[in-house]
Write a structure and sequence with these properties.
Layout lengths: L9 H8 L3 H8 L7 H14 L5 H8 L4 E6 L3 H4 L3 H16 L3 E6 L3 H12 L5 E5 L7 H8 L3 E4 L12 E5 L1 H14 L5 E4 L6 H14 L7 E2 L5 H14 L5 E4 L2 H13 L9 E6 L2 H4 L7 E4 L2 H18 L12 E4 L2 E3 L5
Helix pairs in contact: 1-2, 1-3, 2-3, 6-14, 7-8, 9-10, 11-12
Length: 345
């Protein structure tokens, strides 16, 4: 057996710095009212002794837990298979780390998990929540609102009841879709199809609306419903080829679905882009540079979206306005999108 050294105490720091225990407590817990020379002596003693503040005691003083819940309204099989979530989590993690705050990941596999997540948030374990990948019938926003937890949403919320205000970060989904379709038309394509995402999510609805903005009264047979997954892209592409075998371009709601689209076109003997031009949405480098041919897509800065969500939440907590509008007169921040051209269109 090995003997471990005892953990330095608040009293030991006070003795080393030559100040009272109360003074040390105020300094390490971020309190005011300590003259800078004394505070510097305390900080030096903390470093010399390797003192680590007790988080429970710190929370009593600061009323902060230095932890933020990240709630993803998807099952874990989807979260860990889709690079979108990894990129967004990376942005969130970087920003929280910069503010010495911990990330607590909460996933919802089914309806039973919604109540569990709501209880956890209401229990005072975290300072706030970052919530994304919501579906239109999802009860989570109402449950979180009831828990009274400062929250920033990823993606434009889909409720329109005029009661719940929301701070959110999103990309210009509709504008990006318009850019994609105009790009395909600019290539001389005339029969442009669209494979949607899951239409119970606002991002998919906005991208479909952007397609319709440009295509106007296009044949409804040129639109097939997907679900943001490769298998959904495969299924929708097969439907389109059966209904409109003469199509010459496809705008796909996300890069992951485009993987399935390219696979079906290859199996059907359709050359990309010679026979059918394909453009995706997201610009996730782990996918777009590995496809054959490399995928033309609409870029949204997914990592930056995650970072901005965390920044808005932390800034609101520090400024006492978490959960309020981050920009005067607006309830959300919408980031720009742009077409990144590669070989598929």
């Amino acid at each position: 057996m090995t003997e471990t050294a005892s953990r330095p105490t608040l009293e030991a720091v006070a003795a080393r710095a030559g100040v009272s225990r109360a003074t040390v407590s105020r300094v390490v817990n971020g309190g005011d009212g300590v003259r800078e020379p004394l505070a510097e002596r305390v900080r030096r003693a903390v470093e010399e002794l390797g003192y680590v503040p007790n988080q429970a005691a710190r929370s009593l003083v600061t009323r902060r837990h230095d932890a933020v819940a990240v709630v993803i309204a998807e099952p874990e099989t989807r979260v860990f298979a889709d690079p979108f979530f990894a990129l967004q989590l990376r942005g969130i993690s970087k920003e929280l780390t910069a503010h010495d705050s911990q990330l607590v990941l909460l996933l919802t596999e089914g309806r039973d998990d919604h109540a569990r997540v709501a209880r956890y948030l209401a229990g005072g374990h975290v300072d706030g929540a970052l919530v994304f990948s919501l579906h239109l019938d999802d009860p989570l926003p109402g449950l979180i609102h009831g828990a009274g937890v400062p929250t920033v949403f990823g993606g434009r919320p889909g409720w329109g009841d005029g009661v719940r205000e929301a701070v959110y970060v999103d990309c210009d989904n509709r504008g990006g879709a318009r850019q994609a379709v105009r790009h395909l038309l600019g290539l001389g394509r005339t029969r442009v199809a669209h494979i949607t995402g899951a239409l119970d999510q606002t991002s998919a609805v906005d991208r479909l609306d952007g397609y319709r903005d440009v295509m106007g009264d296009a044949d409804p047979a040129l639109v097939a419903q997907g679900d943001f997954t490769p298998s959904g892209g495969e299924r929708a592409m097969r439907e389109l080829l059966e209904r409109r075998p003469d199509l010459d371009a496809v705008f796909v709601a996300n890069d992951l679905s485009a993987l399935g689209v390219l696979r079906v076109l290859r199996e059907a003997g359709r050359r990309v882009p010679e026979d059918v031009a394909v453009i995706g949405f997201d610009d996730m480098l782990p996918i777009v540079e590995q496809t054959e041919p490399p995928l033309t897509t609409v870029r949204q800065d997914i990592e930056d979206m995650g970072r901005l969500m965390a920044r808005l939440l932390i800034g609101g907590l520090e400024g006492g306005s978490a959960g309020k509008d981050p920009v005067p007169g607006r309830s959300g921040v919408v980031l720009p999108t742009t077409v990144v051209r590669r070989a598929s269109a």
